[in-house]
Amino acid sequence: VDTILTPLDLIETGKTLKVQAERPHLVSLGSGRLSTAITLLPLPEGKTTLGHGNTDINIQGPGVAELHCYVENLVGAITLFPCGNLCSVDGVAVSKPTRLSQGCMLCFGQSAFFRFNHPEEALRMKSMLPAGGRGLPVPSPILLNGTDQPVPPERAHPGHGTLVRSIEKDLQDIMDSLSMSDSQASSSECGKLSHLPIPQSPLYPMLNGAGPHLVSPPVSPGTTSTLRLSFHCCGGW
């Protein structure tokens, strides 16, 4: 297997050591708990084959075929071709050519794990983040208006505040008018009802020692009412 050299940056920060490459590459996460090495596998322009046979990148593990799959780098666009063997991207099995994106996790066979890094793509993604590097990416001007010109900020219209206040005043006048109309309508209905006679309650039968008679129910204080008695005898009146 030919060894392809790729530029690496070693950055020491306190007690940690950071390894950074400029080109797309795979980071081998090992094929088991006994693996301790960290291996960077570059993905140059063109086609890179993977498997345990005569391939560009040799991988071992259960379920890995002799020519397991290959990765194609076409002007920075990285695509995985499974070749009918067991491959997964971010835990999802794939059987068709799949475009790889920065940071995705790959598994070939049952236990050969890799992380895909694309430094240029990662740099573009970071540039889309707002200040501070937090939150969702800000859409580029091209996505917003289809051109490379930024969208001009919205300008405040003169007299906008005056228009709003005028509309609010008109709405308040309408509400006051409706309130006055309701009040007058209520007063008119009350006046009409005051001239109507009070309906009499139906009489109900009571038994008294002298015989059956009908007595109207009690009336409210301050009003007069006539007690009407009706005696019913066998011979009549």
TrEMBL record:
CDD domains: FHA_PHLB1 (cd22713). Residues 51-109 form the FHA domain. One of its GO terms (biological process) is regulation of microtubule cytoskeleton organization. Gene3D superfamilies: 2.60.200.20. GO terms for molecular function: peroxidase activity. One of its GO terms (cellular component) is basal cortex. Pfam families: FHA. This is FHA domain-containing protein. It comes from Electrophorus electricus. The lineage of its organism: Eukaryota, Metazoa, Chordata, Craniata, Vertebrata.
